[in-house]
Amino acid sequence: MNILVLNGPNINLLGIREPAIYGSENYDELCRRVNAHAAEKGIGCQILQSNHEGDLVDMIQRAFFDKVDGLVFNPGAY
Question: What is this structure's pTM?
């Protein structure tokens, strides 16, 4: 099984932007945790992020052609 985790605008600023609200864990650490959990479960995982709506749409459409089994989308600032 292969999944795509897609993060939208401002998620790349985790740990920097308003840490009192969103926490101090940065985006790289979040990605490491997601990848470690997926590996533990035997799931292939690709994590992508963009601040641009068109890029996000392109990534979603590409997932179909890449035969991704599932997609998790955190739209972030949308």
Answer: 0.89
